[in-house]
Request: fold
Amino acid sequence: MHDMSEPMANTLACALSSLLWVAVCVSFGGCIAHPEISGKAVVTRDGEELVIDTGGNGTRVVDASGEVAGGCVVRNKGELSVVVQREGAAFSFFDMMDQAGSPHVSVEIDGKLYQGACEITIEDLQDDPYEADVSAGPCDIIRLFDGAKARLETAVFHVSDCSGAD
Reply:
């Protein structure tokens, strides 16, 4: 039997660090750069469609005063993380991370973490690595520790003024 605990622990640590980053930024009224994030993600689970949306069917930009928080980070040129969080919703957290060699998404539904290896497309705009259209899906995501399945149908976000972390 193959032991998957170390890869799962590493993936979980990445997802939780992204969540912590959003929490710290939101708690202090924003980070040094104030990223603009708009878009939405759609997940299906047991025939139910769940949506996390920045507002206006994905057209509204998140801000510190809204019910939806968001953040994005560019790590080393070409690696990007986009995080959106909505407190109190069944689908409350979404993170897509294009990390060299292992693009993946993390989703929290009803307080449970789902993850999956999903192809992520990043289209830099005007040769600016801190502004991009980012998308993922469709792909399967799996709830950690018990293997329950859900599916990321689509995720489409526009980000700009992302923080840089080389």
User: Anything to note?
Assistant: DSSP finds one helix and twelve strands in the chain.
